[in-house]
Amino acid sequence: MSEVFFILIAAITIASAIWVVFSSNLIYSAVALLFTLFGVAGLYVFLYADFIAATQVVVYVGGILVLIIFGVMLTNKIADNRISHSSRPRFMAGVISFFIFVLVMTVIFTTTWHTGEEQIATATVNTIGEMILTTYLLPFEVASLVLLAALMGSALLSRKKHG
Amino acid sequence: MYQNFAPIIIFVTIGLLLAGALFIVQSLISPKFNKGGEKLATYECGEVPEGSAWIKFNIRFYVIALVFIIFDVEVIFLYPWAVVYKSLGLVAFVEMMIFLLILVAGFAYVWVKDDLNWVKLSVKYGKGRYSELAAKEESSP
Predict the structure, then answer these.
(1) What pLDDT is stored for residue B44 in this prediction?
(2) N or C: which end of chain A has fewer CB within 10 A?
(3) Is A129–B81 a contact, with Cβ atoms under 8 angstroms apart?
(4) In terms of pTM, does the model score above 0.90?
């Protein structure tokens, strides 16, 4: 049963990723990216990484994608459809992509994958919550400082120079 | 653990089915031939539609989206905290308050520095439906 869902989610992810690349309209690409990112969140669930899946949905689908769409909408002449990405040197791109494909496939099929007993994993959020509040408290609080630096840096960079 | 995600699958399926059902219903009851012209025009509450819906956004949206993402990441840290809050009690509360306080300092920074203020339009009369009207009023007295 879960294999059916896995294949379904993987198919949605790959199909929408292909749509992202081949769509001639940037807005359509951004909308297709929604399904890709959501499908990746589904794949995380199959890796027993439920916290990462939640992060993927909240941060990437909810945040980064909105930022990408804003970035598209901020561009000049957005109504002009010719703004789409052109794929000119198709031959060279095809050759390079082919070699990367061969490389990845070689690695996949020559590596001896260690397959152990299937473990029945429970939800990881409890463990993560206990860890960040006890053992890894200092890195957790430092993460707050990192976020603070990112917030101030992005505000500073996006400000007009006179400030 | 998969069982925890069954409701999500059910919700997504119902959502897709509802959206698909609406498309099927509208294709069943809508007239089959298309005369074009006014029928294809965008419905803008009876006004004549003007320009594309894809306008250039104000740059301020981008700054606010950047600030939003920072707090989005903060919220994702609240999620495991909320799960174990009951078992850890007051210690967890104090630790999370320190975490939040540091980020509230960043929020205060962007607030004080006017990064959240809206940029006023510097264009005196933007090109639009009433731009000619405004120019006429300017010249008449």
Answers:
(1) 78
(2) N
(3) yes
(4) no
